[in-house]
C-alpha cells in the first residue's frame, strides 16, 4: 500500500499491522484517553455511581470514535504545517503513510459509527452532542481560530468540554446544571493545560505562523493567564458541592488538594516564565489533575462512600452534641 508525501516522496507500509497502527495514530489516542475520562466522570455522577456496564462501554467507545473522527480531520487539515513542525512531521499524513482521501473516509466512518451507536443504545441528545463536538472542533477551532486568533485555545476548548455533556446525556437524556459545571471545568482547564505545552514548543508554532499566545505576547503574559485560569478553576470545581449538592466532602477535599497544587505550579511558572522545566511540570501535572479530579468524582459518587460519610457525619454530630448537653 503506497502513499505520497506532500513533497512528492512516497512511503510504503510493510504489513497490515503497520497500516492499523497508522490509522490508530491519526486519532491521537492520548488525547482521546483524557476525553473518555471526563465522559466517564459525567456518566458516573449522573448515575449516582451506578452506571449500566453496557451503556458505559458503548458510550465510551462511541466517544472514542467521535474524538478520533475530529482528530483525524484535524490531521487532514493541518497536514501542511504538520510537515514543517518537528514534533508532528512523522504523523501518518505528513509522513505519507496515509493518503488524505483515505483519512477523510476513515473520519466519516468513525463519526457515522459514533452517532449510530449513541442514537441506538443511549439517546439522540447524546448522539447530537457528540456530532456537535466534531463540528465545533473542525470548523471553529481547526479551520477558523487555530491559525487566526490567540483565543484559539480559549474558545476552541469548548470542543474538548463536550464529552462530559455526552456522558451525562447518555445516562439521563437531558442536561442539568451539574452537567454544565462539568463543561465549565474542562473549559477553564484547557487554556492552562495547552498554553503550558505551547510555551514548550513555541518555536515550532512560530515557524508555521500559528498565533498561540506565547508566540504573540511572550511567555510572561502567557504564564499570567495560566495562573488566572488556574485560580478561576478551583471555585468552579466546588460548585458541584455547593450549591448543586451533587458531590460531597470526599470530592471537595480532593478538588481543593489538587487545585492547590495546580495553583502552586502555575505560580512557579509565573515567577520563571521562561523556565521550560517548570512549564513542562505544569503541563504534565494538568493531565494528572484532570484524571484525579474525575477519579475523585467517581469515588465520591459510590454508594459506599455516601454511607461512610453519613456515618462519620452522624458520629461527629453526636460527639458535638455530647459537649452541648
Automatic annotation (TrEMBL):
One of its GO terms (biological process) is heme O biosynthetic process. It is a multi-pass membrane protein. This is Protoheme IX farnesyltransferase. It catalyses: heme b + (2E,6E)-farnesyl diphosphate + H2O = Fe(II)-heme o + diphosphate. Its EC number is 2.5.1.141. GO terms for molecular function: protoheme IX farnesyltransferase activity. PROSITE patterns: UBIA (PS00943). Pfam families: UbiA (PF01040). Pathway: Porphyrin-containing compound metabolism; heme O biosynthesis; heme O from protoheme: step 1/1. It is found in: Cell membrane. The keyword Acyltransferase does not apply. The keyword Transmembrane applies. GO terms for cellular component: plasma membrane.
